[in-house]
Amino acid sequence: MALPRFPKLPLKPEVLQERYSRHLAMSGIGPAGQQKLSEASVLLVGAGGLGGAIAYYLAASGVGRLGLVDFDNLELSNLQRQILYKESDVGKLKVESAQRGLQELNSELDIKTYTSEFTCESGEKILSADNYDVIVDAVDNFAARQAMNKLSQEHEIPFVHGAVYRFEGEVSTFYPGKGPCYACLYAEAPEADDAAPGPASFTPGVIGTLEAAETIKLLLGMDELLVGRLLRVDLRRMSFMTLKVQRDGGCLVC
Description:
Blueprint: H1 13-19, H2 21-24, H3 30-39, E1 41-45, H4 49-61, E2 65-69, H5 94-105, E3 110-114, H6 120-129, E4 134-137, H7 142-155, E5 159-165, E6 168-174, H8 182-185, H9 203-220, E7 229-234, E8 239-244
Parallel strand pairs: 1-2, 1-4, 2-3, 4-5
Antiparallel strand pairs: 5-6, 6-7, 7-8
């Protein structure tokens, strides 16, 4: 069932001018770039630790439309890292609380929520019904990432990937026709110790912020993207390393 939307309060030009004054004064964004952001549409898959950080910065930056996919209810243990939520949200659907919080931050933001697991089938329905400029990964599920990657290639929509593990994380952008895809990097699920505790509370915030930055740069048409590159972050050692990702000539997806 669709949630009632917060009333959109038409903002006066002078209010918009003040709200985005830092962007409007920046070379690389400016009025034309801010207009691009207001017309942009992002499909964010996952509303947890990564998704909360990503969604908050997209909303604050003036991105016009956000599709939010998540089927989980908030648990108390989530609050250690999922900064979009409060104690009063425990037990509620994450997308409902996320929509409310994000539109309190920016009443101009248009949010559409989807309370289903992200698969090739459910993702195809979403992308066939609505136009999105970019797909952003904020899950901890390899099958969902495979589905995002497949649909990214089929619909020719850029796909921003992020993942976290304990104190570590990674970010990359897969742009159909301009570089390798996610399956070129991970044809099979990367090894991970599922029994290991984590991530640290701040790890999703750092990686989610990097994903938000990459998404906003992509929407603005900037060239300096992580296409064909994988940014690896180790927050224990405070090290950042960028690795080249080659296209796999035998990849079955791209």
